């Protein structure tokens, strides 16, 4: 998280006149108390609640600050200091007091392509530096192309306002809908992955306006403007480009290409003959023996364009309306993605149903085979049970017969036992009689012996 000075900015800087304002920012001229140096103080209104639409989020402010801290180039505005209070983050920036490039050029009666390319070369140098660090500005437009000081022989270009600039990371897809409609690339309008190429499209639009004073895609409404951009619907009207060289038109054509991969890179642009050749001679081949004559471009229409941009900017040029439109496009994109997801889910469900049906049919066939096998086994078991039941009944009958026989034997045994008892009693009685008889005989014998 970026650390900002929590001290009061007024203790270090004396605030002066307002230099400009945006949707959530005000820029004021300021003087550093310790040195007397002049700077520009950009007061960015902080978003208090994450759900609020008012103000700029902490994440967006930190992204802008981190990018400004990283860059140091003669054609790019410089960050000097940062303060923070309860409501604002204040960026102390290099004071760029020369005004907008287009305003400066519109003050001239006419403009040569050589003069135009000298300024354009500075823009390209600044963008080349940004792109070398994989930083995309995403809001290149005349209002953000300023002069450090217009009262010098060769004014220096300064690129400003990095509020929506992003560091582009390889392998990390980035999509967003932002910027100023008149200057955004088709991939922004169509909510496609974004990269450094979007800046090159904006440079193509800026060059077109610089040379003609007309905007290539601007329509009566924002929808018409965005439709023109998406369709790359533009031409080089003879009325506006009668004094423009073919090299200049070729430069624009190579930038206003819908496919970002086929669009000129910043390196390609710097090597383009229209930019690379310092001393340019706009002479046709058949007139090569004649004294070269510079083509001068009238700035009347450019003046009209700048006046119109500053005084009564059309509704489709406002960021607020574009932001609303961008939200609609985002919702459409989400809805389309949802529909695609539903279609994928439908196909997936159909595949799952087909797979389940195949499994069901396979299982059904297996169950049928198993059922037939089980039915055969059950029939075998039934036969075995029937045999067992028959054998059980036979066994029961045999047991019953055995019981009957046993009972008969028991009764017979009982009768024999009774007879045995009677006979035993008779034998005992007979034995007793015999014993008594023997005893009687022995007594008689003893008596007979004693008499003798």
TrEMBL record:
Source superkingdom: Eukaryota
Enzyme Commission numbers on file: 2.7.11.1
Binding of ATP, residues: 46
InterPro entries the UniProt entry points to: Kinase-like_dom_sf, Prot_kinase_dom, Protein_kinase_ATP_BS, Ser/Thr_kinase_AS
Annotated Gene3D superfamilies: Phosphorylase Kinase, domain 1, Transferase(Phosphotransferase) domain 1
Coiled coil: 325-352
Keyword set includes Metal-binding: no
Cofactor: Mg(2+)
SUPFAM superfamilies named in the record: Protein kinase-like (PK-like)
Example GO BP: positive regulation of apoptotic process
GO MF annotations, alphabetized: ATP binding; protein serine/threonine kinase activity
GO CC annotations, alphabetized: cytoplasm; nucleus
Residues annotated as domain Protein kinase: 13-275
EC main group: transferase
Reaction equations catalysed: L-seryl-[protein] + ATP = O-phospho-L-seryl-[protein] + ADP + H(+); L-threonyl-[protein] + ATP = O-phospho-L-threonyl-[protein] + ADP + H(+)
Alphabetical UniProt keywords: Apoptosis, ATP-binding, Coiled coil, Kinase, Nucleotide-binding, Phosphoprotein, Serine/threonine-protein kinase, Transferase
Family: Belongs to the protein kinase superfamily. CAMK Ser/Thr protein kinase family. DAP kinase subfamily.
Protein name: non-specific serine/threonine protein kinase
